[in-house]
């Protein structure tokens, strides 16, 4: 077995949400005045402010106040030079743009776990976030009482609404993506459906353009990693989604797909390409449903993620698996499941990081300790 690739130098990762410690803030009344908040905010970093809101929430503070504090902190640490925060401007910019997932996941937690039923039961339609954020802020958030000018107050209010609306788009968009992916999975592959058959034949042409199929049912399908003479029997639980993701990979990442196919045909460490791809579809869908793709999507996409964004993640995870397989150098394809399990453990660990972004990941990241 080959040794792991050399680890590259990486910056220190942010501490986890639950491990961050701040002095307990005693909330004397449910109607906390902003004048009492400002001194604490003025000596805190951008990340500390987010945790301060969560700390207040967990300390039995009113749910509405906690939510207000969180969005308020997000707004002032993104744009406001009014307060003398400890981070330099360039550091604040890096912090906010590198770990956007921290803001959105924390807000999602506050929305779902608030002591206020008004917040817990708050629902909105995808696309209406700006209006709903304005309504929520105007009806539920305490008024701002501080000294900036009228123009600064207007800018603050606009920033507050934008921060909340942006996070709401990501939260609702992720839920919608889970539904869209499940809809595609539940469509069973049907050999009598002309559209399904065309997609299957397209996959063959993309992966093996120089060789024609002499028949629909043929052993040649095994050349691209199907188990038998008829690929229709291999999609099973992943339905049409499994086929569509293989086609997406072969069509939009052609060079990498052919490189991965070539690895799968290796005489000693080869594996069934198409079957592995369907397995990765199952794995990627599982990550999605368990919320493990939230950090990636919240860090990499400002708006709601689309089904194509999900397909792109599939391509990246499948590619990483092939690199991981090549590094592990298994004795035979019989080692597929043990290697897959080790890969799952490493990729899950990465996805749980606040900084997770599969657009930037390289295989060395999976071997970092």
Automatic annotation (TrEMBL):
Under what name is this protein listed? ELMO domain-containing protein
Write down the InterPro entries for this protein, in alphabetical order.
Answer: ELMO_dom (IPR006816), ELMO_domain-containing (IPR050868)
Q: Coiled coil: which residue ranges? A: 157-184
Which species is the source of this protein?
A: Steinernema carpocapsae (Entomopathogenic nematode)
Pfam families linked to this entry: ELMO_CED12
One GO term in the molecular function aspect is:
GTPase activator activity
Positions of the ELMO domain: 195-351
Q: Which UniProt keywords apply?
A: Coiled coil
Lineage start: Eukaryota, Metazoa, Ecdysozoa, Nematoda, Chromadorea
